[in-house]
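Continuing from the previous page of notes. For each protein in this section, the sequence appears first, followed by its structure tokens. Read the first protein now.
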Amino acid sequence: MKAKIIILLTITMLITTSYIANASLIKQNKEENVTMIFILNDHKVQLDANSWDGFDTYKKALKGDVEVVANANSQGGHAHTKCDHGSLGEEKGTANFTLYEEWIAHCDITAYVSISNYYDWEIDIAGWGGCWTHVKLGFRFFIIDESTGDELAYGYHEKMNYQQSHGAPINFANTNEEYCSHHPATQNSESFESVAFEKGKKYIFGITAHTWAYSSASMGAMSSIVTVTHNTSSNSHGFIYITWDDRPPLKPSTPNGPTHINIKGHQQDGVEATYTTSTTDPDMEGIYYQWYFEGYANTGWDGPYKSGEVASYTHTWTYFAKLDDGTYKSFNVKVRAKGSLVLSDISEWSDPLPVKVPRQRANNVLFSRLMDNFPLLVRLFEKLLIYQ
């Protein structure tokens, strides 16, 4: 009984391992920081957002002596806007940083795009007397065609828009009051449907973290601080996914090869003939071919071949069919293709190539059999022909 259980478990593990290996085929291009993931019937490009390709910063004191800080590198960034003043003061400023990834499309696709990253953000507000403040924090997601500068898609998430005036909900009128809100490792993401990419073009995917603060005081003092920082902990990394449905290869070319096969009566193993074809895959993945030889079982999937590469297959013709009118039947040869995904869509069949397979006449068959079995006769006939 134990032996049967062990056998069943072993078989289950082998099936599971095989499924996982085929359901998620991964190709890594380390130079471009791009991972191609083939999952069942989808394609997914994963851009490595742990180390960003580029960054940018912006800061400006719009009014008063406001403190604005913005810095960034390939690992992340930080933006900080602080309004801090006494009575009769008014300050306004903004600071942000942008992180972005670059990607060159390897084929024409219309894809679903998801951009995500983790940030720490907080606001700290304190004041007394007659004062007023307004602080904001938001994230802007974008996709840009680098060649034209056109923005293909964008979205803005306002995470916090806090306004505080004298009286409510926190009274800054007579005593020191404080309001704080801290949010560590918060995920911010945006998704875009049906974004069109062109083969060979470079695209920029990015997130801008934006802080903005404004405060005024007719008396007393006010301090308003809004800060955002890219979270760099190992468990809180960003990602950019570009996902699209698999598309089948184009219709393969009509097979090319011998169209007239002579099967001699003594050739019990049949006659071999090689046929070729080719096609392209819109997703530029590997291509597998299945051949159809009329009257024979379909072949297995042969490959993979590169998109556009000529594929060949050698078939053995083993029989013929004579029609009622005395002629011999033509057999059609066709081929179809599919991509390398586990559940890849299959192309349509190619146009057929008709192949005539007649049987050689009996006297020729007997003569050929003699030649095959008695090679000395061949030399004898050759000598007789020479000395005629």
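Done with the first. The second protein uses the same format. Note its length before scrolling.
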Amino acid sequence: MTNKRKQLLKPEEYEKLFLAFTKCKDGEMRTKIQAVRLYGNNVPVAAITNLSGLPRRTINRWYSRYWRVGLNGFVDNRRGGNNSYLTDEQIEDLASKLNRYRPVDLLGLEKVATADGLFWSVPNLRQAVKQWYGVEYKTAASYHRLFRLCDFSYQRTAKVFRSRSEMKVAEFEEMVEKKLSDHAQEHPGSIYLTEDEASMYLQATTTSVWAPVGRTPVVRAHPQRDKVNFYGTLNLISGEEIVTKAEKLNSEATAEHLEQILAAYPKQHIHLFWDRAKWHSDQAVNQVLENNPRLEIMKYPPASPDLNPQEHVWKTARLYASHNHDCSKLAELAARFEYIFRTNKFNYSFLKKFNTVTICATSK
């Protein structure tokens, strides 16, 4: 697509810039003059970017500045301090440094604004920008904008257990891919499930909501920690959920949930993923597995709850059923929780990374 420019350089202006370019000894200014000359001569911006290393927005800005004030527009007359701002080139340099360094690497542990200084925050960005470029902005919003310009976003950290082994995770994924491939041929139409347990407390958990400024929303939480337990099993193909309510999490309750799974899929071969909880391997569970060889277990690696899609189902259900809730009776809260599972499907891409197109097609 042709780049239409409203105002191109006249021959005399082009020569004027060429003369300024040949006389200029400053490398950065020569680059800007050359970029303006090429842009004004209708050279494609992509070509100018490749030659100069300047981003498109910088080229456009310098070209507009040239038309406003002429060659004086190339001179940096900023005074520093609160009256100065980072250039596009400095922002690109800042983005590189923010990816390369942690706050603790730059400032030391005694000056960081977060525990151990592993992640960037507004106070530490303010210190870094002042140290690297001698620039200090007045508002936090300006530093938020800097983060966005550096391709950073405000995120909640993901928790990973110290005992987690990435080697075991890789071995698990390799094992799963091989087994699923074999099962697709040996047991076409198999069911693929993942299971986990969760507890629901009568005492409400809180989460952020939108509210009028100056009026903090209040949740009247129950003072006691009464709870109800759930077994949840997700069908990895259909997104359907099987839920069992239990007073305790033990081998007997686990066996009861397995019987519920077997009843839901009375003829199919079942592959069930679950973790290494102690109640998954006691006598009652082993008896169910021995009596039902069509139910095959595959265990997640230790300390890897993030691999289990059922964990994400719990998170979704808590969002709609238990966060900021106003229930005064545990039975009412449990019923609300179960209703979420009965009326929704939860689709996750767990199987897709194992090249399971054939499995998905034959299991529906």
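What the second structure shows: Confidence is low (pLDDT under 50) at residues 77-83. Strands lie at 191-201, 227-235, 241-246, 270-274, 295-299. We return to this in next week's lecture.
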